[in-house]
Amino acid sequence: MSGLNDELNGIICVNKPAGFTSFDVIAKMRGILRLKRLGHAGTLDPMATGVLPVFAGKATKACDIIPDRDKVYEAEFRLGLVTDTQDISGKVTAEKDPSGVTASDIEKALGNFRGDIMQIPPMYSAVSVGGKRLYDLARQGVVIDREPRPITVYSLELLAYDSDSCTGKLTISCSKGTYIRTLINDIGEALGCGGVMTALVRTRACGFGLEDCVTLEELQQLADEGISAEKYLCPIDRVFGDMKKIVLNPHQERLYRNGVRPDISKMRYSFENGEKYRVYAADGGFIGLAKADCEAGELSVYKNF
Prior knowledge:
The protein is an alpha+beta fold. Helix content is 18%, strand content 33%. The chain has helices spanning 22-33, 103-110, 134-139, 180-191, 216-224, 250-257, and strands at 10-16, 38-40, 49-56, 71-79, 81-83, 92-95, 115-119, 128-129, 132-133, 149-162, 167-174, 195-205, 208-209, 245-247, 276-280, 286-293, 298-304. The strands form 4 sheets. Strands 1, 2, 3, 4, 7, 10, 11, 12 and 13 form a 9-stranded mixed beta sheet that branches. The radius of gyration is 23 Å and the shape is globular.
């Protein structure tokens, strides 16, 4: 496969297996693809599975500028327990009989967790406070006060609940930075019995779904057969699909590629000051992102790929 993956520039969506950190997936893929330039979007906890967009080659330039698009999860939970990690893998810190809780009670409690809410990040998280990761402090047995952070829960629905086992499943659409295990912990607290997350699947992220994903095993099989992973490669511009599209004519393209800022008054598009746009070459190839400066009447390069 020597030299083959020099051409891999784009996004490979991996269905992350349980037990792997997001960084484990990147390390594994470096070995499979024989490619160093890899990055990922949207960290998943080790116990979680599902959509993990992995950026390859030139696409890694997009990792830090991906639009904050909604993420969707399916989460399983169990009532009656509280753990230090807020999921079933942690140390049990409290137990209470949840047998009196009904599906109707849960439905009623969910109403307080929809929309714009404040959430305190868990101690077992990568959030940094005073230059230290919370999970490093937690592993030392240290618990500190954390500032609540704003998140948005766009939808939160109860898919199933078994009153005998006190277990159920939720589907959640939420903003970046939402901790699902904390959401379940807080719902359990609101119900007065506690609750822990027992399983988590991310079904959508960065505009990709499970249907777009490939497994590490499938990628390994291609590598073993000497076949490029290009068939699983999604174009870089897909993550910027919500931005308006601009196609340059050959003259504008030549100027733009040479660092000259095109005069937007001579372009057939309407622009909003400060807005970002997807820029394409005359032949339809994706060049990158541009930012409009309506006061100067110019279109400047924001990021080229």
